[in-house]
Every structure is written in structure tokens, then in C-alpha cells.
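Justification of resources, computational component.

The compute hours requested in this renewal are based largely on the per-chain cost of generating structure records like the one below. Each record pairs the submitted sequence with a full C-alpha cell output. That output is archived, and it is also reused by downstream analysis tasks.
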Amino acid sequence: MSTVTRATLAEQIYDQVGLSRHESADILEDILERMARTLETGDTLKISGFGTFSVRQKGQRTGRNPKTGVEVPILPRSVLVFRPSQLLRAHVNGQSSGENPPEGDEE
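The structure output for this chain reads:
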């Protein structure tokens, strides 16, 4: 198993599209920047066949320091949520896109 990095993605663009390495890296950076800007504004980002990224607001709540047991407020914050598409989910589970998941695996 390997980690996918910006460098490996840029190299894939270089290999498959045929642009220079610099242009490939610039295209990747532009795509990632546009994705980040979309999420920063609170909009949903959907990549067909891959999944949907969205930002969810979490309200203030009370937490507890596990070491001391003292209650502390956890401030409201935004969290990034990813929901994979059915196609990606099937691919990860080794199924073709037309197969149904085994019984009991529905979410």
C-alpha cells in the first residue's frame, strides 16, 4: 500500500496527459485550490463517481478532560465530511458497480 501525494498525482498527470512536469503540477495545484475555495465558502463539492465533500457546522458542547475529569467547553467549529459515491464504495469492496451489497451492510 502506498500513500498518494501531490507529487505522485502530478506525475500521473505528466505521464497521461503529456504536459511538462511544471504544467502538470500547476494544473494539480489549481484544481486543489479551487476545491479548497469551494469548501471554504460552505458549498458542497461533488465529484461524480467519486463522492461528495461538504462542510458541517458542529455546535458548542461540553467535553471532559480525561486526565483530570474537569469539564471544558468545546467551541463551535466546522468539520469536513466526505461521503463516497456508490461506485467508489463498490470498487473499494471489490464489487462491480452493478452488484448489490451483502445483506446487513446497508447504511
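The two ends are 27 Å apart (CA to CA). The chain has a mean pLDDT of 90.
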